[in-house]
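From the methods appendix. Each design record in this collection lists the tokenized structure first, followed by the designed amino acid sequence. Records were kept in a plain field format so they could be parsed without special tools. The example shown here is representative of the layout used throughout.

RECORD:
FOLD TOKENS (486 positions):
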């Protein structure tokens, strides 16, 4: 029996439905996240991460500089428009391999340019669009919809390993004692209203903690379980969907749920399509595609590529673990086995930062952060002190004006501005707020700006409840502003 016949495959109708879902999701993220917040965050001329951030960043760090050279809004909008165009072509199925590769490259460049907003779901998107380059988009003969090949295997391995490695990385004390979910429900800046309704139900938060661990580790095992594999696909889909959409009920962790939905569509077995009229399934196939050559040389090339991808998937995650400063038990074990140096040695220097398939988000690993907090900009004037966002005074109880601002400040709060990149981002945000305040008609003159982190650190899970805690005010930077008497 041939090797490829033993490898669990993917249904081509699911592959093509995944293409449409992924393309629409990425287009929607560009429109709803980037373009709607363009002036305040992504604009080279006026945004927080504009030309000021870019010039300081490229002066400090080595790396691709081409996208940093776009200094005008019109140039950046053209670039974003090209991204959308290629994603539209990918979605409708016009040469999807070419358009997937172009979309992956453009996303990679965009992530380098706006790297402080390169978060877990952007890694998800990068992985999925990059793997789309290897998928078989051409129509097969009627009735033959199963894609079985080493690349199908590595695609399934990639999906399973994402969750498996995130699962084994959650190995801190809070995950082990069942309090991790309670700790991250207490993060006021990300918690949704429903979080407060369950935060005191210890039996539920403990159950959700262990469910998360079991779910993440199980997906890889279920995808390759040799008995009744196709029915088990529905179990995998159920686990993925309940995890991401369940989290979203209580905590806002971004766009993870939408990319998880794309993965769930990809995993649909052929039994699903038997319930759907054939005309619908046929309509998912691309209008034009490039058919790769067949024969023994191409099969050997496919096998070699698959082995290389498996190696890079594993190595990328292990490299992040051994270089992380967190007390990760997997990392400790690797170092005790004296594998850390070997992993660093076989990893190309450029791979962790600049690869198409960075995927080491390891959310809440090895534990959710103990300190809960949020960063605020407080403008001191003769008329009083004001919490400010995008040059406007924030209403009582509101923390941020936009989702990208929330993600940027959450990142800086968590990191506490540890390195030069974060210092540059914080300075860019500070200068943006000062300029926006001074341009706003009627703003009283500034005397001082305090960059403040409000935080609390529960000593145990028992101190976490639905009551909003007392936050300590920690000034991480004070800027005195002199107007020269004007």
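DESIGN:
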């Amino acid at each position: 029996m041939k090797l490829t016949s033993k490898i669990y495959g993917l249904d081509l109708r699911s592959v093509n439905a995944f293409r449409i879902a992924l393309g629409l999701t990425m287009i929607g993220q560009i429109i709803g996240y980037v373009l709607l917040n363009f002036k305040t965050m992504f604009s080279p001329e006026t945004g927080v991460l504009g030309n000021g951030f870019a010039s300081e960043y490229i002066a400090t760090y080595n790396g691709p500089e081409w996208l940093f050279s776009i200094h005008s809004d019109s140039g950046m909008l053209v670039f974003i428009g090209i991204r959308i165009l290629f994603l539209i072509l990918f979605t409708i199925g016009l040469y999807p391999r070419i358009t997937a590769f172009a979309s992956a490259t453009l996303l990679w460049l965009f992530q380098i340019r706006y790297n402080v907003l390169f978060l877990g779901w952007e890694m998800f998107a990068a992985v999925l669009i990059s793997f789309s380059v290897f998928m078989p988009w051409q129509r097969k003969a009627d009735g033959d919809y199963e894609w079985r090949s080493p690349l199908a295997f590595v695609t399934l391995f990639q999906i399973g390993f994402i969750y498996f490695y995130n699962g084994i990385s959650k190995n801190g004390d809070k995950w082990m004692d069942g309090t991790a979910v309670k700790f991250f429900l207490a993060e006021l800046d990300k918690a949704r209203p429903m979080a407060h309704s369950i935060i005191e139900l210890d039996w539920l938060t403990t159950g959700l903690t262990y469910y998360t661990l079991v779910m993440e580790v199980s997906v890889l095992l279920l995808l390759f379980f040799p008995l009744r594999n196709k029915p088990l696909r529905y179990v995998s889909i159920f686990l993925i969907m309940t995890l991401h959409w369940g989290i979203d009920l209580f905590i806002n962790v971004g766009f993870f749920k939408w990319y998880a939905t794309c993965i769930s569509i990809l995993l649909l077995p052929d039994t699903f399509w038997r319930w759907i009229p054939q005309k619908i399934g046929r309509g998912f196939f691309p209008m034009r595609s490039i058919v790769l050559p067949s024969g023994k040389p191409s099969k050997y090339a496919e096998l070699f590529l698959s082995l290389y991808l498996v190696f890079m998937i594993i190595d990328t995650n292990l490299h992040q673990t051994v270089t992380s400063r967190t007390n990760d038990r997997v990392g400790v074990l690797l170092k005790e086995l004296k594998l850390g140096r070997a992993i660093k040695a076989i990893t190309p220097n450029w791979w962790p930062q600049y690869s198409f398939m960075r995927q080491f988000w390891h959310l809440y690993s090895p534990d959710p952060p103990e300190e809960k907090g949020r960063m605020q900009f407080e403008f001191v004037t003769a008329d009083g002190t004001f919490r400010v966002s995008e040059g406007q005074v924030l209403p009582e109880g509101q923390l941020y004006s936009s989702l990208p601002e929330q993600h940027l400040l959450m990142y800086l709060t968590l990191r506490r501005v540890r390195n030069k990149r974060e210092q540059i981002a914080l300075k860019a945000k500070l200068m943006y707020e000062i300029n926006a305040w001074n341009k706003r008609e009627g703003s009283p003159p500034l005397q001082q700006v305090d960059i403040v982190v409000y935080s609390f650190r529960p000593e145990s899970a028992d101190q976490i409840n639905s009551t909003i805690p007392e936050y300590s005010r920690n000034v991480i930077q004070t800027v005195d502003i002199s107007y020269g008497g004007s």
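APPENDIX NOTE: The mean pLDDT is 87.
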